[in-house]
Specification:
globular, PA2G4 protein, PA2G4/ARX1, 4 helices, Pept_M24A_MAP2_BS, Pept_M24, Creatine Amidinohydrolase, 2 domains, three-stranded antiparallel beta sheet
């Protein structure tokens, strides 16, 4: 589908490459991100109440656009998400909104980190420890400048402070947990 849709644009530019920049992944419930099943994995049928996160990336001439969206199966105005799940979703949404306002020329990456921590904690949630949002450049999906979520003490010392500049582009990944914010291998 990605190849089909990107093939419809910039048709006159015969040499321009377009297509997949980051593989589509579907992560369900406690799986934080970037899940891509193996053929040997058992099938999973989505059910009412599952929190589903879809993530993918495309590029046109090496300029990357990443997108992710989370939703709850069968949630609606008549059957809203409640409790801790609602807290996590609202915290993540507000963190994304904060990044939208803070990632601008003259601001620092640490301002975003601090805002995310404050927002998540106001909902008694935790950003996922050590997750990075990366600067994007042509043909580069993990640029030098990053925004770190919930850094450990060592990461606070090691992570480079950076100022956002005009014409920079970032893939902002917001990952929030109702738990302690630490990832574990399955």
């Amino acid at each position: 589908l990605i190849m089909e849709e990107t093939g419809k644009i910039f048709k006159k530019e015969k040499e321009m490459k377009k297509g997949i920049a980051f593989p589509t992944s579907i992560s369900v419930n406690n799986c934080v991100c970037h899940f891509s099943p193996l053929k040997s994995d058992q099938d999973y049928i989505l059910k009412e109440g599952d929190l589903v996160k879809i993530d993918l990336g495309v590029h046109v001439d090496g300029f990357i656009a990443n997108v992710a969206h989370s939703f709850v199966i069968e949630a609606s105005k008549d059957k809203p998400v409640c409790g801790r799940r609602a807290d996590v979703i609202k915290a993540a949404h507000l963190c994304a909104e904060a990044a939208l306002r803070l990632v601008k020329p003259g601001n620092q990456n640490t301002q975003v980190t601090e805002a995310w921590n404050k927002i998540a904690h106001s909902f008694h949630c935790t950003p996922i420890e050590g997750m990075l949002s990366h600067q994007l450049k042509q043909h580069v999906i993990d640029g030098e400048k990053t925004i770190i979520q919930n850094p450990t003490d060592q990461q606070k010392k090691d992570h480079e402070k950076a100022e956002f500049e005009v014409h920079e582009v970032y893939a902002v990944d917001v990952l929030v947990s109702s738990g302690e914010g630490k990832v574990r291998t399955a």
